[in-house]
Amino acid sequence: GEQEQERLKRLMAEREAERQRNLREEEGLRLQVLQDMERSQMPAVQDQDGLLRKSIEHYTFADAEDKATIYIELDKDLFEGAAECVSDENIEVCTKDNEITIHLHRVPASKTLATLADWTLHISPLFHSVEVNETTWKIRKGKVSVTLKKRKKQEWRRLVKF
């Protein structure tokens, strides 16, 4: 009777306390993601399907007469150790007439956080138009290089128009 009810109450209280502890822990981890900035100044944001999204803020660009190449050095531009997390399967490149989006799917959010994120570099508008279907990319020695074929042979002083 009463003893049994007391025992159940205590059990429920313990369960609730445990649940609260877990929530706090989860919240702590989430905050750690948001604070964990290393090279990346932008916090990770969570989209509707619960995946973290991070901006790729660092890259280099090389100009040639008929093409422009974007380089992302994974260990330097994302975080130390990123290179071993990225392979062909993670990379998706979408080119439009005057913009490009490079996605690195399912790569950890940071060096200290294993939570997977989608890292994105979006450049728009490009300095000039490109041939949409001629974009090529490869990953070698921890460096992703994406080559855009220019519609017209001309010098690009920079990658972004403005």
Could you characterize the architecture of this molecule?
The chain has 162 residues and is of the alpha+beta class. It contains 2 helices and 9 strands, in the order αββββαβββββ. The chain has helices at 2-35, 74-78, and strands at residues 45-46, 52-55, 60-63, 67-73, 91-96, 99-108, 116-123, 136-140, 143-149. A 5-stranded mixed β-sheet has the order 1-2-7-6-5, with no helix packed on it. Strands 3-4-9-8 form a 4-stranded antiparallel β-sheet. The longest helix has 34 residues, at 2-35. The chain starts with a helix and ends in a 13-residue tail after the last strand. 20% of the residues are buried. The mean pLDDT is 88.
| Number of E strands | 9
Class derived from helix and strand content: alpha+beta
Element-by-element helix/strand order: HEEEEHEEEEE
- Mean pLDDT, as a whole number? 88
* Portion in helices: 10-25%
What is the molecular shape? elongated
Q: Total helix count?
A: 2
Euclidean distance between termini CA atoms: 76 Å
What are the low-pLDDT stretches, counting only 5+ consecutive residues below 50?
Answer: none
The largest sheet has its strands arranged as 1-2-7-6-5
Task: Work out the radius of gyration.
Answer: 23 Å
Strand content: 25-35%
Taking the sheet with the most strands, its summary is:
5 strands, mixed
